[in-house]
Design goal:
By secondary structure, the protein is of the alpha+beta class. Helix content is 38%, strand content 19%. The two termini are 64 Å apart. The structure holds one DNA strand of 8 nucleotides. It is an enzyme of class 5 (isomerase).
DNA sequence: GCAAGGTC
């Protein structure tokens, strides 16, 4: 019997489970190649990609493994990207499709070798068992091998259905083989077809649309792309940017007060914290200043903090970003290296569970023997090194417990447990990034077995004149539990070491010694970073655990998004300017720096759409709106479920996609030159303004027509936050030239002057409910041209849609 | 050259 597995690690596991000779029942995700090298270091190259074993019933099994997909859809009209739509792609071996590029060359070689071997073995096979992951993709992987490599054997093959890799379940599945799940296969093949038909054709259409423009201007080839996952992901970034641009900063006020007792200062906040009117806040201050307050309530609340759950890939990517600022794709690439070095289990997992079959005790013991000296010198530990427990310390603490039971999350995975360390010793020197990530995985694994921590929050209420309520709050850890194991990575912000409130008693009288008004503003949502964008994709269920980070990287590669990092000087100008220093001369209201966390540039920094990214989405919204919303995925999933349940056929579903794309491409072609111009314009804008002007960068619009020596630049009014044009000689030569500017969109200099009044003519562009606009106009509101012709007076009327 | 999906 020929057994087809999806990947080496599973093939090895199945071989162990089925083999009567193997007594080793421990579940291991160690890569097969690694095992083979361990056993026969002299001839790893000549080793075959299959294993022959005798099963318990005397049956011979030849266990083969794939490397994920061995076949991929390909344009049947091959190569000519001007020809589209392509509506009937065919399956071709990936060793042919992937042969270019040195990184994948080795993989191509391996795939080619596997295909040749399976083809040879299948000639004399008594039967075929499809033992790939029991999900849509797994079914397609096995289907293609059985159909194309084994010569049309899918329909006569048997399906082994298992969802965990325990001996028991594997043996059970081989004793109860099922017929192939054709409907699952149909759904999977349809998914490939739909993604190909939409992705390839629209990407070609987009790329083609700018070819004429770029060849006219003798610009080089530029690849554009869009797809079912790329589109919505890019749209998330654009939607967020629009929210930020359209945000209205509404002021509100906080009152902070210090009370004195036994020479100790108690810092408090007025409650409710948010005060919507300044006069109300000032009344509070006037009423409470220098008054006595009484402790009316002391509330101590203990909360348990559960141990962290073991890592799924997404969790690991999130944590590595938080701690080390590793991007998700970088984290995946390091995790893969650790996996190939047999140091951690399979990383492409969505599971947050650790089955007991991995043998907790064995792993904890093995990890305890790992040398962690190098880890202790790790710079990521900073100066916390002294308080950090070694692996062996943690290990003996855990093993002294009666039961070993990890705290698990609710996510599962059809084929793998959560990520855990294997306890193997590294066979080479690890790079810094590998050491960091491995240490994180090890400490997370340990921590998940730890005891619950306990925190205690004390909240003291102080009331002035029986009416005004102030609260002081502090939180501290009273029992560390698992935090001890996760110490270098536990976020201690928000906790104090010693509380300064517990000496207070009910009815204590305190004197107010300081009270101050803080003006704050409602904040727009923060920009996404690579970690939060990935989480958004997880939440919206687009992409897969293994591909999400790659798709974010693609958006960077296409220059659809960029990373905005405000400079330090901009931060101080922009954010500190919001600090309220308004205090009437006679009042003791203090000038106060506002909370750094709330206004730090960190929140502002993040992913922004580029001009070209915005242009792509706005064109797509006009012609193929589905591709930039998650509705295509939703709709497709619903239809594929119908295929899976047999209520519709693959042919119907794929035909529908074909018809939709035919229509879309027709409409696209009719408007091709318009689209091409629009995107080319955005490309141009990207080139000339990189880095793009932002509200914090200095944008010069032209020479000041009033003093003739200064420049008019875009400024932001401190109080109203509105942007306007002002002269650079404002402070030095008291030139008061100003003019109002549109509050939304991007403003650029055109270099032109108004013929009538010689004020600068500027360009403003942006996006209004998905429609791009751009217009040029003289910024002088008193310009004789505007005053004489009322129809240009309204900027919206003079804007031209492009 | 292009999608999204799987993998060493």
């Amino acid at each position: 019997m020929v057994v087809i597995c999806e990947k080496p690690s599973v093939a090895k596991r199945i071989a162990q489970a089925l083999s009567t000779h193997h007594q080793n029942n421990n579940y291991s995700d160690k890569p097969l190649d690694q095992e083979q090298k361990d056993q026969s270091p002299a001839s790893p190259a000549s080793s075959t990609s299959f294993t022959t074993i005798k099963g318990m019933n005397g049956q011979n099994y030849i266990i083969c493994h794939a490397l994920g997909h061995l076949y991929g859809l390909s344009d049947s009209k091959k190569g000519n990207t001007k020809v589209f739509p392509v509506l009937d792609p065919t399956w071709l071996p990936l060793s042919i499709l992937k042969s270019k590029g040195s990184a994948s060359k080795f993989l191509s070689y391996k795939i080619d070798k596997i295909l040749r071997e399976i083809s040879e073995i299948s000639k004399n096979a008594a039967g075929f068992i499809h033992a790939c992951d029991y999900d849509q993709e797994g079914e397609v992987i096995g289907y293609n091998i059985l159909e194309h490599t084994c010569h049309n054997k899918y329909s006569i093959s048997k399906r082994a259905k298992f969802s965990s890799l325990t001996d028991e379940e594997i043996i059970q599945s081989f004793n109860n083989l099922l017929p192939p799940n054709e409907k699952l296969k149909d759904a999977g093949v349809s998914r490939h077809m739909i993604d190909f038909i939409y992705g390839i054709n629209l990407s070609r259409a987009l790329t083609n649309s700018i070819k004429k423009e770029s060849s006219r201007e003798k610009k080089g080839y530029r690849q554009l792309s869009i797809g079912r996952v790329q589109g919505p992901t890019l749209a998330f970034v654009i939607e967020r940017e629009a929210e930020i641009e359209n945000h209205i900063f509404e002021p509100y006020w906080n009152v902070r007060a210090d009370f004195l007792k036994n020479n100790q200062t108690i810092r408090t906040q007025y409650y409710p914290q948010r005060i919507d009117s300044k006069s109300t806040a000032e009344n509070i201050i006037n009423a409470c200043k220098n008054q006595l307050g009484k402790v009316t309530d002391i509330n101590i609340q203990k909360t348990s903090i559960k141990p962290p759950i073991p890592f799924s890939l997404g969790d690991l990517q999130k944590e590595a970003y938080r701690l080390f600022r590793f991007t998700p794709s970088y984290t995946l690439s390091i995790a893969e290296k650790l996996y190939l070095g047999a140091l951690i289990s399979y990383p492409r997992t969505s599971s947050q569970k650790l089955p007991s079959s991995i043998n907790y005790e064995k792993i904890i013991k093995a990890v305890s023997k790992l040398v962690d000296n190098n880890l202790h010198h790790n710079s990521s530990y900073g100066n916390k090194t002294k308080s950090i427990l070694s692996y062996s310390n943690i290990s003996s603490k855990l093993l002294s417990n009666k039961v070993l039971k990890p705290n698990e999350g609710k996510e599962t995975d059809p084929a793998h447990p959560a990520i855990y360390p294997t306890g193997e010793k590294p066979k080479r020197n690890l790079e810094d990034s590998e050491i960091k990530l491995l240490d994180l995985i090890i400490r997370r694994f340990f921590s998940s077995f730890g005891e619950e921590a306990t925190s205690s929050q004390i909240s003291v209420t102080i009331t002035v004149k029986d009416k005004f309520t102030f609260k002081a709050e502090e939180k501290k850890i009273v029992f560390e539990g698992w935090i001890e194991y996760y110490r270098p990575y536990f976020d201690v912000s928000g906790f104090v070491i010693l509380d300064s409130l517990s000496f207070l008693k009910r009815s204590d009288i305190l004197r107010n010694v300081k009270i101050e008004l803080l003006e704050k503003f409602t904040q727009p949502p923060p920009r996404y970073n690579q970690s939060t964008l990935l989480q958004k994709m997880e939440k919206e269920k687009i992409g897969t655990k293994a591909t999400r980070s790659e798709i974010i990287s693609t958006l960077f590669k296409r220059n659809y998004i960029d990373n905005y990092v405000p400079s330090a000087s901009n931060q101080s100008v922009t954010y500190n300017s919001k600090i309220v220093s308004k205090s009437s001369p006679n009042s003791s209201i203090q000038k106060e720096q506002i909370n750094k966390d709330e206004f730090s540039g960190i929140q502002r920094s993040g992913l922004r759409p580029t001009e070209i990214g915005i242009a792509i989405v706005s064109s797509m919204k006009k012609y193929i709106p589905n591709i930039v919303s998650t509705s295509l995925t939703r709709d497709m999933e619903a239809q594929l479920e119908q295929v899976e349940s047999g209520n519709t056929t693959s042919v119907q579903v794929v035909d529908k996609a074909r018809n939709q794309i035919k229509e879309a491409i027709q409409s696209f072609n009719l408007n091709e030159s318009k689209i091409g111009q629009e995107i080319s314009l955005a490309l141009e804008a990207n080139r000339t303004t990189s880095p793009r002007p932002t509200s914090t960068a200095v944008v010069t619009l032209g020479t000041c027509p009033v003093c003739k020596s200064g420049k008019l630049t875009v400024k932001k009014a401190i109080k109203s936050k509105k942007r306007f044009a002002g002269c650079t000689n404002y402070s030095s030569a008291k030139c008061l030239a100003t003019s109002s500017l549109p509050q939304k969109g991007i403003i650029k200099s055109t270099g032109k002057k108004c013929e009538k009044c010689s004020w600068p003519i500027i360009s403003a562009s942006g996006n209004n409910q998905g429609r791009r606009y751009q217009w040029e106009f003289c910024i002088n509101s008193q310009c004789p041209l505007k005053l004489s012709s009322s129809n240009i007076n309204n900027q919206d009327n003079s804007s031209k849609q492009i």
